[in-house]
Amino acid sequence: MSGALGRGSVATRLPAQDLERARRFYSEKLGLEPFDERPGGLLYRCGDSFFAVFQSTGVSPGTFTQMGWEVEDLDAVVDELRARGVRFETVDAPGFRTDEHGFALVEGNYPSKHSRGERAVWFRDSEGNLIGIGQPVH
């Protein structure tokens, strides 16, 4: 690690036009509760990482993955989220496309570490943010 940023940590921030709607989505659909909250923002903790959802007047373009999880058992996570009402997106991009079950094999993709790629799915939160979930392929 060199440079000041190499010694820092990364935090994802997702915009929300309606913070209460976003709070309900993250609670009801994803089973997450805020770790901390302040006026205009919610902070969530997942493992050793954090992400924030903040009140914004801007609209997410939803044209690219804005945040992603890396999980050990993608099938189990998808089953749980589908049971909670999460709808997964069809994402077709150069080099991959989602299959009839909503999964894509993304060869050589980061952020999966120490793997040759990942199996992945995508969904949108209540605010239109495109969120991915991946499982490393070894």
TrEMBL record:
InterPro entries named among the record's database cross-references: Glyas_Bleomycin-R_OHBP_Dase, Glyas_Fos-R_dOase_dom, VOC_core
Top-level division of the source organism's lineage: Bacteria
Domain VOC: 6-136
Classification via Gene3D superfamilies: 2,3-Dihydroxybiphenyl 1,2-Dioxygenase, domain 1
Descriptive protein name: VOC family protein
